[in-house]
Every structure is written in C-alpha cells, then in structure tokens.
Design brief:
The protein is an alpha+beta fold. It contains three helices and ten strands. The chain has helices at about 1-20, 100-105, 130-135; strands at about 25-30, 45-50, 65-70, 75-85, 90, 110, 115-120, 135-140, 140-150, 155. Strand 3 (about 65-70) and strand 4 form a beta hairpin.
Length: about 160
C-alpha cells in the first residue's frame, strides 16, 4: 500500500512540474484565431499544446502565444505576435477595424511597440479583441508558445 501511495504521489508531482514548467494543454474558445484555430470545423473549442520552455526573449513575430488577458484578470487569450519591442505596426488610417488604443496613439499610420512589450492580434481581425483595442501586451504576460492544436479529430502543428 505504501509503495502505491509513493508511486501515485510521484506521478502527481511529475505531472505538476511538467504542466507548470514544460508544456500544458489549454482550451481555446471562440473564432478570433480562425482559420488557424477553430476555423475548419463548426466547433468553437479546440485544444492547444502550449510549450513553456521557449524563453520569452525567443518569442518571435508570427508565433501564436498564450498570455494573460490584459483586460480581464484571471482570463487568458491566444493571439499571434505581430510586432516586438522597437518595431512599428502599420495601421490603415481609413480602416474601420481600428480599436480604442489605435485611435488614441496612431501617428501617420504607425504605432511603435514600447520596450518590454509585444503587439498581438487574432487571425480573424473582424471579430478579434486584441492589441488594436487594449494596446501592447507586456512580454511578462506571455505564458508560452502554442505549438500544436487539436479539435478532437485532427492534430495540427502551428
């Protein structure tokens, strides 16, 4: 009996360390990342494997990341990194997709991403609530990089 309890405790400990330090599985709801995530099927929930070993300094433009929602404490968002610190985001001044942040800080169709931040957007720009609304996201909000997505029927590397 003691051996079984030790084995169970070891398994739980290994699982906790793995999910907090190496990788985790998280549900992704909604269509803001369609067609990359939740786009091919009628389902609005997919599951993403988020790897946590990549250092924040190794995150690059084009990566899909899981991060803390800057607007809702305790919530998370999955978005694509469009620009990193020191880079400029081109904004079409005539585009109706501009959000509150863009309206306030855009200058001559451009926005600079401040140091220690990144600019994230959903792939489905028509419905995504992202940096265009809430502004740049601190790099410290990033929890990991999405490397695989499944909708229960297929597995896709991203």
């Amino acid at each position: 009996m003691a051996t079984v309890l030790k084995a169970a405790a070891s398994g739980v400990l290994i699982s906790l360390v793995f999910s907090s330090r190496v990788a985790t599985l998280t549900a992704v709801e909604g269509k803001s990342m369609s067609p990359t995530i939740n786009g091919a099927s009628h389902r609005t929930i997919s599951y993403a494997v988020v790897e946590k070993l990549t250092s924040i300094s190794k995150i690059k433009r084009g990566d899909i990341v899981l991060c803390h929602d800057p607007e809702e404490h305790g919530k998370y968002i999955v978005k694509r990194v469009q620009a990193l610190q020191g880079e400029f985001v081109d904004i079409d001044p005539d585009n109706s997709e501009k959000g509150e942040y863009v309206e306030k800080f855009m200058f001559e169709g451009k926005l600079a991403v401040p140091r220690g931040n990144c600019w994230v957007e959903g792939d489905n720009k028509n419905i995504s609530i992202d940096s265009r609304k809430f502004g740049p996201v601190p790099m410290g909000f990033i929890l990991g990089r999405v490397c695989m997505v499944t909708n229960g029927f297929s597995l896709k590397l991203v």
